[in-house]
Specification:
The complex is a heterodimer of chains A (about 475) and B (about 140). Chain A is α+β, with helices and mostly antiparallel strands and about 475 residues long. Helices cover about 35% and strands about 25% of the residues of chain A. Helices cover about 25% and strands about 40% of the residues of chain B. Classes of the chains: A alpha+beta (about 475), B alpha+beta (about 140).
Chain lengths: ~475, ~140
């Protein structure tokens, strides 16, 4: 594949169409990142996506691209609403996995002496770990309302405030959700898991603004150096996983029914306007709402835990949502394409929306700066806050990267962690970590991930997003 | 789960986990896939057959049936906290499976669930008979 790659500029490479590719694939990356990308067949997966009917422009891969199921992680593809398809594999199993960033009125010096207490309090307040279940057992009727209303439902139940909703993609409620399209299996998997962090790479991180790159934009976001922040990273738990699983079964039949030629079964899809396509979008939106509600509840408990641990009032802590982004989602959006404004269906799998300034979907106070793009790194280094640009609107259907991506398998990471006291090592770097099991910490050691700085530099180098601040972890609760 | 013809190994990939299973019979292959998955979920766990579930599963082909089978065991773990110890297959074709699974609910004192499997995928899936008549399957999990 390497020999086929055409360099467009320092941070963009193209795989020209070959075989049944309908459009080229374009990979945002630096030259230095390419060998890793090519080694794990992720570029081949980006080329496979270009086979899908109705794809517009390019099959995109963001700099954090890595091997996924069907679509690569870090894959973005937009489809014509009439000719195009919708693919559950282009969204991923963890529907609306996403990141929320909160800011506080606290300074680093306010929390550093109490970090262990804070981490313990958040760990106790938010159920986490493999198979974690919540305190809430939803009735069928309540679950319907969660699936329809998302974070708004959570706010109505007393989890957080209406002001939180302004700063969430879709304001925390995705339209078009039909709970009836969610199977009983999916409902059952989700019922006990609302308000839980889950496991794997999901986390809550208490951090601090380490570096400010753009003070003007940072000020609009309410961020300044040494200020304490919180990141919540989780998704739709078992409910979303099962919605994806169920839809893949349906789509495997749809591929035969509509005669769609695919290089990989996991890319199965259906025309957007077909019954199968519409049913998936309605079920997906329900799972999206489940995840919005989940992060809203976790935010509420995290706020309470911090207040309690520090013995301060909600007014003193003043913990507000900076923004929340989804990074596993498909959305119907309006974009300018070949000189015309068109409604298209954008798949973002392990990719973040990154709308530029003045987009009507932005909160009014962010109109001038563009949409915040939240890029978490590993637990030992740093995360970034970026903002979307005009370039991202004209090049990538308003999409950017979402994170770092693994470089070590879980087993490799555990081997590399053997005999080390990871918690002590991190504590020496000023980071307190707590997880339900030692293995989770071992699996998630910082060196198991790529350096997110390289990913962010490729994205900003290409002009798709702009750096605003860098955050550094102080206390981490791993799932 | 004592068929000596069943062999499996865990495939370790950067972001995910897979299994490679070999058995003399198709029944052994499905049994072995369940054992391998339990090994990922709850490594070295002693699971006792205390309760049974009867499952009747369908698929368009052997691959889909395999995905549906493992997905159902994952569903039982996620919703009933049920760990599978033993599998008794009474019917297995390319498209249909009747099976009784025996096992027990997770006991936090003796079982440590290590991994949450989001889904059983079709990625590079293989379920086929080899030249020597034996069976082989490769399955990846999204974790």
């Amino acid at each position: 594949m390497q020999e086929d790659l055409k360099k467009i500029h320092d941070f963009l490479f193209e795989i020209p169409p070959s075989g049944k590719m309908r459009v080229p694939a374009r990979i945002y990356a630096s030259e230095r990142m390419l060998p890793d990308i090519l080694r794990d067949h992720a570029a081949e997966q980006a080329a496979n996506v270009a086979w899908l009917p109705g794809i517009l422009g390019y099959s995109f891969a963001m700099p954090d691209i890595h091997w996924g199921y069907g679509f690569p992680i870090g894959g973005v593809a937009a489809f014509d609403l009439e000719e195009g398809v919708i693919s559950p594999g282009g969204v991923g199993y963890d529907i609306n996995c996403g990141v929320r960033l909160l800011r506080t009125d606290l300074q680093r010096r306010d929390v550093e002496p109490h970090l262990q207490k804070i981490v313990d309090a958040v760990f106790r307040a938010v159920p986490s770990g493999v198979g974690s279940t919540g305190a809430l057992k939803l009735s069928n009727q309540q679950e319907n309302r969660v699936l329809q209303s998302g974070a708004r439902w959570a706010v109505e139940q007393g989890y957080g405030t209406v002001a939180d909703l302004d700063k969430i993609e879709e304001n925390g409620t995705m339209a078009g959700a039909e709970p009836d399209r969610v199977s009983s299996h999916a409902r059952e998997r989700g019922r006990a898991q609302l308000g839980t962090l889950g496991s794997g790479n999901h986390f809550i991180e208490v951090g601090v603004v380490q570096e400010v790159y753009d003070p003007v934009v940072a000020r609009v976001l309410g961020l300044e150096k040494d200020q304490v922040t919180v990141i919540v990273h989780t998704g739709s738990r078992g409910l979303g996983h099962q919605v994806c699983d169920d839809s893949i079964k349906t789509m495997l039949r749809a591929v035969q029914k509509y005669g769609i030629d695919l290089p990989d079964r996991q890319l199965c899809c259906a025309p957007i306007q077909s019954e199968e396509g519409q049913n998936y979008l309605a079920a997906m939106a329900a799972a999206v709402n489940f995840a919005f509600a989940n992060r809203q509840m976790i935010t509420h408990w995290t706020r309470e835990a911090l207040q309690k641990a520090l013995g301060i009032s909600p007014q003193t802590i003043n913990m507000q949502v900076v923004y929340e982004v989804a990074h596993n989602i498909a959305k119907i959006e309006t974009h300018e394409y070949q000189g015309q404004r068109r409604r298209v269906c954008v798949h973002r799998k392990g990719a973040t929306r990154s709308f530029g300034p003045h987009h009507p979907d932005l909160p009014s106070d962010y109109a001038e700066i563009g949409q915040p793009v939240l890029i978490p790194g590993d637990m030992g280094r740093y995360s970034y806050v970026l903002v979307g640009t005009e370039n991202s609107m004209s090049e990538t259907f308003g999409s950017a990267c979402h994170g770092a991506g693994r470089v070590m398998s879980r087993t490799q990471a555990i081997k590399s962690a053997r005999g080390r006291s990871l918690q002590r090592e991190l504590a020496e770097r000023g980071i307190i970590v707590r997880a339900s099991s030692h293995e989770t910490i071992a699996e998630e050691i910082p060196e198991a991930y790529k350096d997110v700085a390289g990913v962010v530099d490729a994205m900003t180098g290409a002009g798709i997003a702009r750096k605003v601040v860098k955050l550094r972890p102080l206390g981490v609760i791993k799932g | 789960m004592s068929d000596p013809s069943i062999h499996f190994e865990i495939l370790d990939h950067t972001a995910d986990i897979g299994i490679l299973v070999r058995a003399k019979t198709l029944e052994g292959l499905f049994d072995g896939a369940a054992q391998a998955m339990m090994q990922i979920l709850c490594p070295h766990c002693q699971i006792t057959a205390r309760e049974n579930h009867l499952l009747h599963l369908f698929g368009e082909d052997r691959q889909e049936l395999m995905v549906n089978w493992l997905s159902e065991l994952n569903f039982l773990l996620q919703t009933r906290q049920f760990l599978t110890a033993r599998v008794e297959i009474s019917l297995l074709t390319d498209q249909e499976m009747r099976v009784q699974v025996s096992g027990e609910r997770v006991n936090p004192m003796s079982h440590v669930i290590r991994t949450e499997i989001k889904a059983v995928t079709y990625h590079r899936i293989q379920v086929h008979q080899e030249a020597d008549g034996g069976w082989r399957s490769q399955i990846y999990f999204d974790v």
